[in-house]
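#struct-pred
JK: can someone run the complex with adenosine-5'-diphosphate? inputs below
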Amino acid sequence: MIRAPYSASDTAGIPSDASIRELVAVREIVHAFLTADRPQDVYQFALDRVSPLVGAAFASIYTIEGDDDVMRLAASYNWPERFRPFLGQMRVRVGLGPSGQAAGERRAIQVPDVFADPSLADWQEVATELGFRALVALPLQTPARVLGAVTFYFEKPGHLAVEERGLLQIVADQMAATAEKASMIDDLRRANGALLESNAQLEQQYVAVMEARRLKDEFLSNISHELRTPLTALLGYAYLLQEEMSGPLTDDQRKTLSHMTSSSERLLELIEDLLELTALRRGEVRVQVELFDPRTALESALAATASDRPVGIQLHTEIPDGPPRWIRSDRQKVVKILSKLLGNAYKFTSQGEVRATVQVLNDLARFTVSDTGIGIPSTAHQLVFDEFRQVDGSTTRQYGGSGLGLALSRQLARLLGGDIQLESAPHEGSSFVVEIPLEFSSELQPAVVQPG
Ligand code: ADP
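RT: done, structure tokens with the ligand placed:
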């Protein structure tokens, strides 16, 4: 064995057997990994522990950052005090000098004696000042990339023995792998931090949205209450006039009054829909359970909407005969749902027919309201159930309406433990299927009815 300048025997207390030192070195690096959080710390810990093991007087690690071909100091060990301030500012270009060459060529570069090599004449002054004669630079690399180089400096000249080279290579490889893992953990930790932060922001936004929504509901509810009171009074007086309590009416007056009451009734219905929607959202709508025959619910809805049927539109009903079939649910709400669907069917159908059916199946009543009207494109099948949404939302739209009817109907159906499905295509008509359980159970009922 050629005398290694940093042979173990030069350093008191260091194990002399190469394989034991290998083990000790690996143990120190593992220790560095367990103790350190960031790659920089891994390098520093490892360098502090390993440099004495290999008999180095001092040592440094330079790493490549980003796509740069310039390396910067990542850790240093035992550099003479007066040189330390400059170390941090030093840049090593990949490919130049022993450290740069080790990184650039991905191989160990040995300089057994700086003073014996005329090509290193420039280094001799520095070496004298720093007090080193030999050095070895090793690439810090993983299978995927080169991270930088680690360089050990020795006071005495000499060649590396094979086992010493092996030990240093193991040290360098372990450092690189360990730093790479620490860097991944660091990245993960940072990504996790960013995620936690955006999570917190999302939560804040969610709270803000919920608060805005609560305020909107509160506003709608308050304003609707305020509007309903005078409107009901107005309607009351109009009915009195219609009944000629204040004297006989001319035909013109009767006509005008009739327009007035029907417009006010529409407005009142809109206000009541708004109130019901906000109450549904707050979980304030009570289900009034009663026993009734679903056929009578459909009949009531047909009667309530009879005046909406345009002239020329046929109404077909399929209401099976037979002994009464019972459902225990909220009759008024079922009638309301069916009335809304029938009202829409009449509104959006200018020729053909409207069909209404009822069936009692095993555990549910199924109602269908279909028409041969304008139909709804599949892209709008979801949104028509949203509040205030209409297929044609423009101000120039042909059909009037508030966009509340389907939202309210679906939420009421869900409150009763059922639902509404839609089948429709443009120009082919629409078919709404309402299913309501025969036995209302508060367990089937969502705690708070969500829109949509
Ligand atoms: P609106 O008061 O506008 O009728 P709805 O919530 O009842 O509000 O309906 C929402 C939208 O769904 C309507 O504006 C219309 O675009 C579409 N729609 C509902 N029913 C029908 C139907 N039977 N035929 C065609 N379109 C319909």
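RT: quick notes.
Residues 290-444 form a domain with the Heat Shock Protein 90 fold (CATH 3.30.565.10).
The radius of gyration is 43 Å.
JK: thanks, will look after standup
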